[in-house]
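A further point concerns the way the authors explain their paired sequence and structure data. Each protein is reduced to its one-letter sequence and a matching series of backbone shape codes. An entry of this sort, consisting of the sequence and the corresponding backbone structure tokens, reads as follows:
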Amino acid sequence: MVTPALSRPLLPRVRMAAAGIAMLVGSALLAQYALNIAERASHPATELVLFYGWFTIWTNTAVALIAMHAGFNGRAAGLAHPALLAASAVWIIVVGIVYNTLLAGLNPPPTLPRQIINMIFHIISPLAWAGWWLWLRPAGLLAWRHLAAVLPLPLAYCAFALWMGATTGHYAYFFIDVSLLGWAQTTVNIIGFSALFAGLMAMAIGWDRRKLA
């Protein structure tokens, strides 16, 4: 059942902004995937699995899909439910923070197209989508029960990344490298990773509800 608040259409400028973000991020994802296939001469299916070995790709894909749904469906329901709007803003802002504070200098993109794509994934997308959520979202629709919405994607990614690491011997991020850290420390890191998302989601819910108190 869709509540009346969720069925109200989003304002045209809100929809246009969401659709613009979706098209920008979606174009960057397709460009990165095409570049990977062309430069590595890899099979598209194989490259797709490798492509989604990175949390950055998971989160930017989520932003593209959720923003597209908000922009073209025009309501904060379904894939653009307020809980997923908030969760996706948290996911992508964590990507921006972690990359720009810990990872930015480790493996700089070698070409201009990749530099542009990298900037979209790690700077423009986090700022644009977090900004959209802060200023353009349908406000006052979150409840504390929505806190759990932020956890499935990062936990699913961790499970996938651990499987990829065990299969290929390569772990995408040092903090989930079982071969280097062992299972105990990796588990602690994943719990801390999840707590970061939960804490930021709690802040988002508190911010959204501040006028309801």
